[in-house]
Amino acid sequence: MDNRLTILKLSEKAEAYAKEVERETEYIVQIDDWQGNGANVTLDPDCKYILVKINEEEFKKESEGEIDFTIAHELTHGFLSLKKKYCQINCMRCGSEEKEAIFFLQTMIEDPVVDKTIYKKSINHLMLSILMILRKILGLYVI
Ligand SMILES: [Zn+2]
User: Fold this and answer.
1) Staple 52 to which of 17, 74, 94, 130, CB 3.0 to 4.6 Å?
2) In this structure, what are the phi and psi dihedrals at residue 10, rounded to the nearest 5 degrees?
3) If you measure from the C-alpha of residue 7 to the centroid of ligand 1, how many angstroms do you get, rounded to a whole number?
4) How confident is the model at residue 1, as a pLDDT?
5) How distant, in Å, are the alpha carbons of 10, 97, 105 from that of 74?
């Protein structure tokens, strides 16, 4: 898990989210640096990898929360594709304008679902944390 990023270190929160996506999809999460703009995700069904590419130099300027959100966002696109059967569009014989239009169209459709999924998973994680704290507190009273 330590080799996921070469420059940025994943926060505990991002690491936990990646593990959850790995558990739910049975794919291995790989996060690599790239020199393009922003971040994106690709799936490798043969090797069962969810590959998040993130421009580390660009994201080093962001706060930990923003980097976490970007990684969670890209991982969730992979999750939706693998677990919810959202389509992965392969542009065959498309020009750059068509590719860009397809990308923006897919983003407009999928991003609200991605954000809602992250929110739901965060609430579930928060509820689990609260339960763990309550168990510890109640455990103290039982002893
Ligand atoms: Zn997106």
Assistant:
1) 74
2) -70, 140
3) 23
4) 47
5) 14, 23, 16
